[in-house]
Amino acid sequence: MRKVSSILGTLIHAAECGRIEILEDALIEASPSGSIADVLTPEDKAYTDRLASAREQKGFLELEDGQYLLPGMIDLHIHAPQWPQLGKALHLPLEQWLQKHTFPLEAKYADLQFAETSYRSLVSTLLANGTTTAVYFGTIHLEATQLLADICLDLGQRAYVGKVAMDNPDQCPEFYRDAGTQKSLEETRAFIDYVRSLNQRGGDLIHPVVTPRFIPSCTDDMLRGLSAIAQEFGCHVQTHCSESDWQHQYVLDRHGKRDTASLDAFGLLTDKTILAHCTLADKGDMALMRKRHASVAHCPLSNYYFSNAVFPARMALDEGVNVGLGTDIAGGPSPSLLNNIAVAVTSSRALEEGVDPSLDGAMRGSSGARIDFREAFWMATAGGAAALDLKAGRFEPGYCFDAFIVDIKSAHSNIVGWPSLDGPEDILQKIIYGAAPDNVTAVWVQGRQVR
Ligand SMILES: [Zn+2]
């Protein structure tokens, strides 16, 4: 894979939540290890000299008119094995979708040939959409999940990967369930060891994640055991939280607590925890998440199909909770995080305005619920990075050189640039609403070109 030395052109990133920074004619330099060494603009004294020497180096690239450099997308919630069912069976409620379609599909990953074909296709497609960091649920299979980690390393994607734990016989079918609690915990340990050995060979791209599917799928012994492993190894934890009416009620019935409180009681709510959805989280849940510094993986497209409601993203930001974005493949039928930025904005508007026309306008919505494209873009970049303790998602010295080019003039582009009419931020909005893989003409992870 080719390494970049520096790029000259227009850089767009969210410097903080709600603030977009656009740097024109900027020079972004990579260090040999793939971090951002420096970002210079024409106002900097050293700019002219540094640009002259950058042009001499191998790996220098000058963006063309219509090309923009964006930080790589960070997708906080993906079910890698569900890739073959993207867009299917979305008419079913979550519990039926899982039992009839998803669990039978995930069970197929006992077959490593099947896993290889599916995972390669998924990781390639995500990179083609500009997703440089992905947080994956694998399956219950140790070997197939190791293979997913191998493929991410091979294709150069930064990845956080978990072997799914699900041992509860009441909720998990016999054909797709961990063979036993202790065996599953041993396999989680084995997976963590495997990923650590991978990184000794291939840098620091792949990270293990402790992955209780969600409370309904796990026995209390499993939840306790996984919490101990996460603490012992200092791993991230990923699970689902208050995703739908059914799931939320299930936890209330079983533990007499809301999801966040129950996870907290097991020691699974920490500053390394990523909670997918949190659609039904209230202010009390948000206060607990903030206290524990846990993050939300907001999956706005998936919410429409499986969550019975829209995650109150505005409330979460106002309550000081860190929020990133996820596609929730295949609950969300799109591999594009840019698309999910657009849907995050749209769904917050639906929440604010309401959607039932039979109600009076004043009664219809939840006032003050909207977020804008600046905030949603921040979630997909810097917000996701914060959830992972990762210096990425922004163009700052010392951050990972994870980035992609959007070329609005590429063939078949849906993005119309109109320089005489467009303000600086308009191009970013147009990219969010219109970019497709055809517009993504190059992708770098840790300074290495992976597309
Ligand atoms: Zn999910």
* Each distinct ligand: zinc ion
Supply the number of structural domains.
Answer: 2
**Radius of gyration, Cα only, in angstroms?**
22 Å
Strand count = 17
CATH class of the largest domain: Alpha Beta
Largest sheet: 9 strands, parallel
- Spatial separation of the terminal alpha carbons: 9 Å
On the 0 to 100 scale, the average pLDDT is 96
Shape annotation: globular
Helix content: 25-40%
CATH architecture identity of the largest domain = Alpha-Beta Barrel
| CATH topology term of the largest domain | TIM Barrel
CATH superfamily of the largest domain: Metal-dependent hydrolases
Low-confidence stretches: none
Please report which band the strand proportion falls in: under 5%, 5-15%, 15-25%, 25-35%, 35-45% or over 45%.
15-25%
Q: Please work out how many helical segments DSSP would assign.
A: 15
What does this molecule look like?
With 451 residues, the protein is of the alpha/beta class. The chain has two domains: 6-71 and 394-449, Urease, subunit C, domain 1 (Roll); 73-387, TIM Barrel. 40% of the residues lie in helices and 21% in strands. The chain has helices spanning 47-56, 94-107, 112-128, 142-155, 181-202, 220-233, 245-255, 259-265, 283-292, 300-306, 313-318, 337-353, 361-364, 373-387, 424-434, and strands at 6-16, 19-30, 36-40, 60-62, 67-71, 73-79, 131-137, 158-162, 164-165, 206-212, 236-241, 273-277, 295-298, 322-325, 403-407, 440-445, 448-449. Strands 6, 7, 8, 9, 10, 11, 12, 13 and 14 form a nine-stranded parallel sheet that branches. A hairpin with a 2-residue loop joins β16 and β17 (448-449). α3 packs parallel to α4 (142-155), α4 packs parallel to α5 (181-202) and α12 packs across α15. The relative contact order is 0.16. Zinc ion binds at residues 77, 79, 240, 276, 328, 331.
